[in-house]
Amino acid sequence: MGNVRGRFRDDLARHPAPPLGDLVQQAVLQGRRLRRQRRLAQFGAGGSALAMLLVIGLIAGPLGFGADDAGQPGGMTVGGPGGPVDTATPSPTESPGADPSGFEEGGGAPPHRFVPSAPSTTVIDTVRIGAGPDGELLTTTPQGALELLTRLLPKGGTSGYASLPSSGVGPGMPYVQVYLDRGDGPGMLRLVIYQDNLRGGPAPGTVELTEVPDNCVQNKMVTVHHGGGLRVDLMISTCLTWEGKGTSPALPVLSVKEAIEIAANPIWGTKLPAEFVINGAKRFSTLARSNG
């Protein structure tokens, strides 16, 4: 038995012990490398997810996904006049030389962005304004203005009567609407009375024509300047509209010459003969108040 133990000691002496210190050190270093690699892998996955969220955010921001398309913040909106009140749907009427599609290229404008035409106003005539009315006069009301307007219109059926809120230089002045049907379907007319330039402005009898091809409500507007800073605007529309909610195409029902004759009538003013105001109050007692 003692010989066996002696042989084991001799064999162990001939084979030195392995360098355990190096093995332990290498195992520690390898463990650190593995932990570092795991952390980097976790960060890489999180970073990829964050990058994906940022890309989605950048895409969704300009396009407005998730927002109300009716003009809410972030929603998709289409870029929209002069005149008393209206902002109307663009008319299909084309301006000479314009792109029939209604879009304009070049000039730095974003592609497929609608570019409305600028209003064009020119003096087209000078007419004689006759003497004003005599007798009892009452403050012009929307009903009185409609009574006078419907008497001055050419023969045809009328409907669509409305009083609209005036704005701009003549707040509170009558601004009225009527549909006229001369046999080819109704067309819309709007008339507004201003008194905004008591000390100057165009001479009485000056006639101006303002054209806005992309505005079907105010497609053509005849302005006749009366004395005392008074002016009468008569709009010839190429659409019908209801409560500012939409439009439908319609033919113009007056020529520019006919509009001049109506707007140049000397009866127009901030006061009308009492018969127009009184009869208008009876005839249009339920006159609708429209928002455009």
What is the compact description of this entry?
This protein has 292 residues and is of the alpha+beta class.
Explain this structure:
This protein has five helices and twelve strands. Strands 1-6-7-8-5-4-3-12 form an eight-stranded mixed β-sheet, covered by helices on one side. Strands 2-11 form a two-stranded antiparallel ribbon. Strands 9-10 form a two-stranded antiparallel ribbon. Mean pLDDT is 73; it is low at 40-114. Strand 7 (220-225) and strand 8 (230-236) form a beta hairpin. The protein has helices spanning 2-14, 20-63, 142-152, 256-263, 274-283, and strands spanning 120-126, 137-139, 157-163, 175-181, 186-195, 206-211, 220-225, 230-236, 239-241, 247-249, 271-273, 288-289. Helix 3 (142-152) packs across helix 5. It has 292 residues and is α+β, with helices and mostly antiparallel strands. The radius of gyration is 40 Å and the shape is rod-shaped.
